[in-house]
Design a protein that fits this description.
By secondary structure, this protein is α/β, with parallel strands linked by helices. It has helices at residues 3-7, 29-39, 57-60, 76-86, 105-113, 132-148, 161-166, 177-187, 204-209, 211-226, 231-234; strands at residues 16-22, 45-51, 68-71, 91-94, 99-100, 118-128, 158-160, 191-202. The protein is globular, with a radius of gyration of 17 Å.
Length: 241
């Protein structure tokens, strides 16, 4: 019996579906799943792992029982849409495999969405590093999100499934799918909740390619996107891990 089925026996306002898009995350996936399950009130969550590897290398490494899994075409937007199509919870949470949710995550989400003005939300960001540059980047990301009301995918975006389906899910573009979705929500005049509670994301992307290079590349790509450059062209300069 899966967690979402067990949840029917447990009173609570929402049932949650946590969607984790992965590619070559064999070393990380079990830690991610265990951390997430430890935060779920008994039986209120299901976890859906969507693997972009046609051989299912990450799925095959999963040790926990009751995890929903599927294979999707390569591309984070396609993976998250595929996961949302399988979701049976009223609220969906999009979680990167290298991001750790804070204590009380699901209670915070439930409290946020109890305000019907909000259709979606995300958490503040902390990068798991003592590097001063990365700490500055995380602080800048927190400030940017609060000023623009546009969180990024590594901030654990959440929303009601009904609303996600209503607006057509993620646009299946090579990158910036998270920003595109948030901008679309804002254009509709709907509200996004930014929680002060912090997710902890790994510094591995910056460490692998070089902190200065990765910061500069991301800044250029984001700036060009906001200036109207097409994601299909920008993706040539960005390799997603």
């Amino acid at each position: 019996m899966s967690g979402i089925e067990q949840a029917d026996q447990t009173p609570g306002k929402y049932k949650f579906s946590v969607i984790i898009p992965v590619l070559d995350e064999q070393e990380r996936i079990n830690t991610c799943i265990e951390q997430t399950l430890s935060l779920c009130p008994a039986g209120t969550c299901e976890i859906i792992v969507v693997d972009a590897d046609p051989n299912g290398s990450t799925i095959n490494a999963i040790k926990s029982d009751g995890i929903v899994s599927t294979i999707s075409e390569h591309g984070r937007a396609k993976q998250m849409n595929a996961g949302a199509a399988l979701a049976r919870g009223e609220v969906i949470v999009f979680l990167h495999a290298d991001t750790q949710l804070p204590m009380g995550t699901f209670e915070y989400i439930e409290e946020a969405l109890s305000n019907t003005e909000y259709v979606a939300g995300a958490f503040d960001l902390v990068i798991d590093s003592t590097n001063c540059l990365l700490r500055f980047i995380a602080a800048s990301a927190r400030m940017r999100s609060r000023l623009t009301r546009i969180p990024y995918g590594d901030q654990a975006i959440f929303m009601r499934k009904e609303y996600f389906e209503k607006i057509g899910g993620f646009k299946e573009i090579p990158l910036m799918e998270d920003v595109e979705l948030m901008r679309r929500i804002k254009k509709r005049g709907d509200k996004i909740c930014l929680l002060s509670n912090q997710v902890l994301t790994s510094a591995r992307r910056w460490e692998k390619e070089g902190v200065v290079f990765t910061i500069f590349r991301n800044l250029v790509i984001q700036s060009l996107y906001y200036l109207g450059a097409k994601p299909s062209k920008l993706s040539k300069y960005y390799r997603r891990h």
